[in-house]
Amino acid sequence: MQIGIVAGGPKRYIPELMPFAKSDWIWVGVDRGVYYLLENGIRPNVAFGDFDSVTKKEWQEIQEKVTDLKKYKPEKDETDMELALVWAFKQRPEKVYIFGATGGRLDHFLANIGLLVREEWIHDEIQFEMVDKTNRISVYTPGTYELPRHSEMKYISFVPVTPIVKEITLKGFKYPLTNKTIRIGSTLCISNELVEKKGTFSFSDGILIMIRSRDERL
């Protein structure tokens, strides 16, 4: 089982959703993201939000088409995205894809990045990936990982989100590394590329965010 969460970020950053729609997927709408799903012909299984970003007409359609609707007051301690992710985590999926969580307000974007590395699920086997038209963002704990080359999203960056990431090794990359320690705030691993059909990256301690990006000029 996989879960797709669509938030209410700017529509221009959200990729086509239907190619992701598989039979084993559960779709979750977050605030205006619920309406984005309906616009794409996808009926969300569950919806979260205070829905202060939809019109009265859109809210009426949401009420008519979504059976599991979890509506909250705007004044609450958690964001709508946090509530949706906590719910998704409890379903024990193999992977959670997050759309509509980039662009627009930077406070929400940074909060969403923070949710990806939340302590209680960072060491769990569930994978989280944030997707928009230009980037795919995922989180990694220590280990060795194989990475295939992507014809469109050719740029690969590794960003430490812990004070230190130890012994990072990159093989098959344009700029390889061997057992390099990097610290939070380092730009050493920004904008690399694979030169082989596939490469590997590994590290022994810390947490990394990997960002795959397409050339915006394409």
Automatic annotation (TrEMBL):
<dbReference type="InterPro" id="IPR006282">
    <property type="entry name" value="Thi_PPkinase"/>
</dbReference>
<dbReference type="InterPro" id="IPR036371">
    <property type="entry name" value="TPK_B1-bd_sf"/>
</dbReference>
<dbReference type="GO" id="GO:0004788">
    <property type="term" value="F:thiamine diphosphokinase activity"/>
</dbReference>
<keyword id="KW-0808">Transferase</keyword>
<keyword id="KW-0067">ATP-binding</keyword>
<keyword id="KW-0547">Nucleotide-binding</keyword>
<dbReference type="GO" id="GO:0005524">
    <property type="term" value="F:ATP binding"/>
</dbReference>
<dbReference type="InterPro" id="IPR007373">
    <property type="entry name" value="Thiamin_PyroPKinase_B1-bd"/>
</dbReference>
<dbReference type="GO" id="GO:0016301">
    <property type="term" value="F:kinase activity"/>
</dbReference>
<dbReference type="GO" id="GO:0006772">
    <property type="term" value="P:thiamine metabolic process"/>
</dbReference>
<dbReference type="GO" id="GO:0009229">
    <property type="term" value="P:thiamine diphosphate biosynthetic process"/>
</dbReference>
<dbReference type="InterPro" id="IPR007371">
    <property type="entry name" value="TPK_catalytic"/>
</dbReference>
<feature type="domain" description="Thiamin pyrophosphokinase thiamin-binding">
    <location>
        <begin position="143"/>
        <end position="209"/>
    </location>
</feature>
<dbReference type="InterPro" id="IPR036759">
    <property type="entry name" value="TPK_catalytic_sf"/>
</dbReference>
<dbReference type="InterPro" id="IPR053149">
    <property type="entry name" value="TPK"/>
</dbReference>
<protein>
    <recommendedName>
        <fullName>Thiamine diphosphokinase</fullName>
        <ecNumber>2.7.6.2</ecNumber>
    </recommendedName>
</protein>
<dbReference type="GO" id="GO:0030975">
    <property type="term" value="F:thiamine binding"/>
</dbReference>
<dbReference type="Pfam" id="PF04263">
    <property type="entry name" value="TPK_catalytic"/>
</dbReference>
<keyword id="KW-0418">Kinase</keyword>
<dbReference type="Pfam" id="PF04265">
    <property type="entry name" value="TPK_B1_binding"/>
</dbReference>
